[in-house]
Amino acid sequence: MTVSNVGPILVLGGARSGKSSFAERLVEASGLPKHYVATGRAFDDEMRERIAHHQAARGGKGWTTHEEPLDLVGQLRRVDASDRAVLVDCLTLWVTNLMMEERSMAAEFAALAAFLPEARARLVFVSNEVGLGIVPENRMARDFRDHAGRLHQMVAEKSAEVYFVAAGLPLKMKG
Q: Mean pLDDT for the chain?
């Protein structure tokens, strides 16, 4: 597996598609010190179990973990260095956190868009593709789907590589 050194990588997929494992392998293949920016919040037992699963998968493999549910761009600036690989898992959890805190999606997305071209670290973003299913029945779920879709388009445009993962198999869409 080769990893480019030009621009971010976006890895999309559905729940339990293997996207996080694939993204972790991309970061490991870089040979750079590995940093993990976790955006998830453990609001319930299921989420605590998911976080524990991800932590166990990385355990003992030299990852430095940074938990940041809201200030993603600030955290990326703090860890940004040309001799690092940074995995952000995941953008859709970040969107959820922003929505719950009633933050401006436009402002947050613009800040990320402005940061990406100047980033020096090898960035890999993981996100859930949520636009392939039925139209959600409630307004908040539709807003979430729309915010995630806009964010994915913006990050994909600025990414050197984009992958879609299904059943553990990555399909390279860009790069």
A: 92
Residue 42: name the closest of 88, 84, 83, 97 by CA: 97
How far apart, in whole angstroms, are the C-alpha atoms of residue 101 and residue 88?
20
Longest dimension (CA), the chain: 45
DSSP line for the chain:
----SSS-EEEEE-TTSSHHHHHHHHHHHTTSPEEEEE-----SHHHHHHHHHHHHHHTTS-EEEEE-SS-HHHHHHHH--TT-EEEEE-HHHHHHHHHHTT--HHHHHHHHHHHGGG--SEEEEEEE--SSSPPPSSHHHHHHHHHHHHHHHHHHHH-SEEEEEETTEEEEEE-
Say how many C-beta atoms besides its own lie within 10 A of residue 97's C-beta: 18
Residue closest to 125 by CA, chosen among 151, 96, 98: 151
Task: Check pLDDT > 70 for residue 94.
Answer: yes
Q: Which two tokens stand for residue 99?
A: 């929505």
Exactly one of 54, 66, 147, 152 is catalytic; name it. Answer: 54
Q: Are 9 and 162 in contact (CB under 8 A)?
A: yes
Q: State yes or no: is 54 an active-site residue.
A: yes
Tell me the pTM.
0.91
